[in-house]
Amino acid sequence: MNIHYNETALLGVLKNVYEFIRTPITVYDENFRCVTHYSVDSLGQYCRLIRESEENQQRCKKSDDEGCARCRASKQRESYRCYAGLNETVMPIRYNDMLLGYIMFGKYRLLGEDIDIGKYAESLGVDKDKLGRACEELSVLTPEQVEAASELLRACI
Predict the structure, then answer these.
(1) Is 89 within 8 Å of 79 (Cβ atoms)?
(2) Mean predicted confidence (pLDDT) in 92-117
(3) How far apart are CA 63 and CA 81, in angstroms?
(4) Count of helices and strands (H, E) across the chain
């Protein structure tokens, strides 16, 4: 399907929601190809540390693909923890019963949720102290903020 997006308007929406949740937001087409995204720092230090390894880059892509596949199957928003211990949310963009694409936002931490940095640093081959400092820089959201951001994006799209 060939959907045309008004990228200027779309980026305006993404920027406004970003100001609320402070985590990258990406819009994908129905084949999970990036249409556009918004973030002040697209990866952040946590993901940059992890993605220094080609193997971890592939694991990241696989994690995103699996989240999108769950979303496609359920036809609703899916929030999950990625392979690197961070939270992401993906939701379908639908018109009537037709899938037009997806919106994904994340990497964030949930309020009150602990991330075992030592475990992830070891499994990812990353320095524990550097990963811990990078983790402290991540946005911390409540489940209510995740729900609100999802609804704002859904309404605007």
Answers:
(1) yes
(2) 90
(3) 9
(4) 6, 6
